[in-house]
């Protein structure tokens, strides 16, 4: 097919075709049209060699598309992490192939969209999520609350955030957790009595959940705690001592 005979509408369609031959992508990448180059750079089958060429394009939007591609090699992401345009750095920050050391660098970027990108990265570490949960920008904290690896203590903390979107994401995330999740975090040391906050502002996680009208989440955690106690009892009956009633979750305080 003679690509030169095609209109740009047809070229765009070609570049978006999931079954396009790589050789045709290479030919389309020789065009000067920015939109067409973006479609090529975004293509899931765009080879690393072609992405390497497009990574040096003068248009930041093209470099953004390269930075977003899952096939973009790590050495190019290193370059993009220091790009002069914040939107390119933001795109790189979201790429799952971004090395952790660069995530740490971009988590301190002056532009909130770049920090949002780090918080949205599926490979963002728990340590970085904890740091970004204190970000001054609501959007960054909202991304943290919506991250699949956001720890339970952080989600409970963000339920009380001043940002509406942050609260919504934290509430949604907590309600989405199943019994297996709560069993796991309880084994790791979380409980309804875990203190959240600093100094005199500290509250038990269970109290925060009830204040946020998350009685369903409270009950899920309570059930997991009781199941854990039963498991410990049956696995070590001889050494079992009757628990202090004050240490048990108080069902009477549960607001339905």
Descriptive overview:
The longest helix is centred in the C-terminal third of the chain and has 21 residues, at 215-235. This protein has helices at residues 8-16, 22-28, 34-42, 48-54, 60-68, 74-80, 86-94, 100-106, 112-120, 126-132, 138-146, 152-158, 164-176, 179-187, 205-211, 215-235; strands spanning 195-196, 203-204. The protein is 57% helix and 2% strand. Among the domains are: 14-72, no CATH class; 177-256, no CATH class. Residues 244-256 have a biased composition (Polar residues). Residues 234-256 are annotated as: Disordered. This is HEAT repeat domain-containing protein.
Structural class: mainly alpha
Strands ordered across the widest β-sheet: 1-2
What's the tally of helices? 16
The percentage helix is 55-70%
Secondary-structure element pattern, one letter each: HHHHHHHHHHHHHHEEHH
The parts where pLDDT drops under 50 for at least 5 residues are 247-256
Number of strands: 2
Q: Could you report the average pLDDT, rounded to the nearest whole number?
A: 91
* Major beta sheet summary: 2 strands, antiparallel
Region (Disordered): 234-256
Organism: Aeromonas veronii
Protein name: HEAT repeat domain-containing protein
InterPro entries: ARM-like, ARM-type_fold
